[in-house]
Description:
This protein has 191 residues and is an all-alpha fold. The chain has two domains: 25-137; 141-191, no CATH class. It contains six helices and no strands.
Amino acid sequence: MNAEQIRRQQTDGFLTLRFEPTLETRYRQARSALIRQRARVVSIAGLLLFLVYALMDVMTLPRELAQVTAFIRLAFICPIIALVLWLSHCTTLADEIFEKVYTLAYLAGGMSVIAIIVAARMQAYPLPYEGMILMLMFGYFAEATTRRIRIDGVEISDAAWFSPRQLPSLPPPYSISRELIETHLARWREE
């Protein structure tokens, strides 16, 4: 590679960087195995949390509201999480398909939390633990397909790409965003 090609790769974010074919295959297999392993732990934790909150709903909320929230948790989300747990052990399912199902399942889990809060607000009943369930979020990594950032002005007011060597001030310790950044930096340092 010449200097211009290296500069272009650095600017574009190494989107086309690949290992030699044999090593690339081994890398993708190891990455997929780690994702499945993480999915198992996260699924078990998610199931336990949704079951505990369903029990809390039944014990603390008015009956009509508890029926709605417990239904969302037990009839909708817990089966989806159980499916992800089962699929994480299923070796015949393609890794790419599993990763998509895994991502969609946890997006559905987050949406269910919003649905529960909306249901409580519609019945004019504040959830005693609303803040806690909003804080229990799942963080995950995604790979950008382009370096172009589109700011919608509604949900995102400012965005930028940063080099690991030139980071802005970091979020507080013990936050999900900080943990994701620290994990990425640790991987970057290992390379």
